[in-house]
Amino acid sequence: RGHMLASHARSAISVANQQAFYYTNMTPQAAANFNTGSGCWNDLEDAEMRILPSGRDTLYVVTGCIFESGYKTIKNQGDGMVCAVPDQFYKCFMLCSFDSSGKMISAKGVGYLMPHDSPLKSGYSKYAKTIDSIETIAGYNFFANVPASLQNAAESQINTLGL
Questions:
Q1: DSSP assignment, residue 12?
Q2: Which of helix, strand or coil describes residue 38?
Q3: Which of 68, 78, 92, 109 counts the highest number of beta carbons within 10 A?
Q4: Model-level pTM?
Q5: Residue 39 CB coordination number (10 Å)
Q6: Could you give the CA distance from residue 135 to residue 152 in angstroms, rounded to a whole number?
Q7: At CA 37, angle to CA 71 and CA 51, rounded to 5?
Q8: How far apart are CA 155 and CA 143, in angstroms?
C-alpha cells in the first residue's frame, strides 16, 4: 500500500494507470489500519473520486506525507530492509471555477491531515483542516498559481466540498 494518487483514479487510460505505479507516487503505509477497505485514508480516496467538477470547474489535489522527528521505521516484509514510515499524510483539495474567458473567478478548499495510525473507520471528516494549517506544517505553498485574493480565502476556511 502507499499510492499517493490511487491507481483506480487513473483506470480509464492504461498508460496513465501504469504511471500510478512509479515509485515517485508511493510512500510507505501501514496497510493494516490505514489504507485498506476499512481505513480512513481509503475512505477519503473513495470520496475524492465522487467529486465531479462541472462546467468550467477544475479540482486540484495535492497529496503528501509528513515525517516528524523521531519517526518510526519498519522492516520490509519481503527482504527485511528497514524503511522509514511517515507520521502523517495529507490531502488538500482546491475547487476552482473559471469564466468563459478562462479567468479564475472563485476557489474553495479543504485539507485533511491524518495521523498514520488513525483508527479503522473512524471517519476522515474529523481530520479536516484549513489548507493554510497543512501548508505551515509541510512547508509548502500548494496552490501558488491561484490568485492571492482567491487563494487566501479558500485556504483559510474549511469548505468540505461535499466530501
A1: S
A2: coil
A3: 109
A4: 0.87
A5: 24
A6: 12
A7: 95
A8: 9
